[in-house]
Amino acid sequence: MNFYEHTLIARQDISPSQIKQIQEKYTKIIENNEGNILKFESWGLMHLSYLIKKNKKGNYLHFKIKGKGKTIQELEKNEKIDKNLLRFLTVKVKKLDLETDYFKKSEDETKK
Length: 112
Description:
112 residues, single chain, four-stranded antiparallel β-sheet, 3 helices, alpha+beta
């Protein structure tokens, strides 16, 4: 089994319930193809560096996955035809960092 970090960018105009449905849909695909989600993070709505399909912002979803190459192939096959997604990226890693939340608001930022 290999470790992967997988990030999705969903359209900016979808509702929070649709984001939850996207998360559940891809979680089921991963689990049905012999994979495990070790951690899920919703990074929220962020600005894109450039326009993608006329969108300035996107909802970022990040999965940390333990699985086989077949798992990722099936996942990406389904993402290519999903109209709610702008982009996706999968990176194979040797070791996953499950402790750090890179996009979580720190206490100093929330007091401002």
